[in-house]
Amino acid sequence: MTDKKEMTALKSSAATDERQSLQKSCENSISDLSDDCKKNFHWDLSDKPGFKTVTMSELFDNAYQGKPPVIDGLLYRGIYLFVGAPKIGKSFFMAQLAYHVSSGTQLWDYPVRKGTVLYLALEDDYARLQKRLYRMFGTAENENLFFAVSADCISKGLDKQVDIFVREYPDTSLIIIDTLQKVREAGGDNYSYASDYQIIAAMKGLASRHGICLLLVHHTRKQNADDKFDMISGTNGLLGAADGAFLLTKDRRTSNSATLDVSARDQQDQRLFLKRDVERLVWVLDKVETELWKAPPEPLLERIAERINTDNPQWCGTPTELCEYLSFDIKSNAITQKLNVNVSRLMDEYKIAYHYRRTHDGRKITLTYMGGVSKRDTCDSICGGVLSTDTVDTD
Question: Could you tell me where in the chain the CATH 3.40.50.300 domains are found?
């Protein structure tokens, strides 16, 4: 009787498999292995991609510089949808928004940060734009507001066109695309969740790369919905991928009154009631249903603002020295964490730039009053180095 040897290797399925090692065979189909093979199997993670992680402590130990809003409390950097029924007044609203941002004039009760604006009016021509703007704003000159009536599709060169424009006008803060459908590839009206999400994600990457707001004009569907934002034409992939959305609605098409609902990731939901000026065709704020939430005062920031101002525009030192300088009862590691979290608020509310870095001599904090300083101004030397505008937002 012939002895049978116990098989511990996989049986080859083809002649070319004869040279494969046991380990490689096991990696190809782990679930199909015999119990003996599974016992001898070892994971080799040396060339496997893994997660790039940070701890909660590391999060608080870093300062993440934010971008200033385009319109405080209303419009921020990122990708937004502006949605409404056809011929409801969306394009007039876009022209009004573009004018206020490019001129830096306040919009209703909302402070505006001045920046270059590109308005892609893809359903208009220059003659119509001229008549519309003249009726709305007269012959006011504005060198920071640009118009175009044609653009490439998203996958066929739009990103390069935006890159070129922002490179030529680095103060660009807002690009309006009117409408989204004009820059989408042809393919009918039946878009899937995946394709809707992908198109917004691509645009979001473009906005993030340049630190701007991309505002995409879009239409509503005919059906009503319990949640107004479910009226956005297409799938939930559009709103799911966007940072926020504006929805302009009317009870009757002939009415001069409208409701503007605002919903976004990191800002408070709002409802604004608007009226249309029939002479100038601009939208006027009637009332706001939801008052904006305001952060409570932060004693540490107020103390810093008392010390860092036009009379004393700059301070540099260690966290311990800062605690002593401010005469503020707080631990040195806690003061850096608190400032890391509030870096944007310190700039937005007090015009003070916060810079934190580790050196051979220890940790260094630099506080610089930036009131009246523009992005193009070069900052003075700080602690033996130069604080660049890439490090601190000075809007």
Answer: 78-288
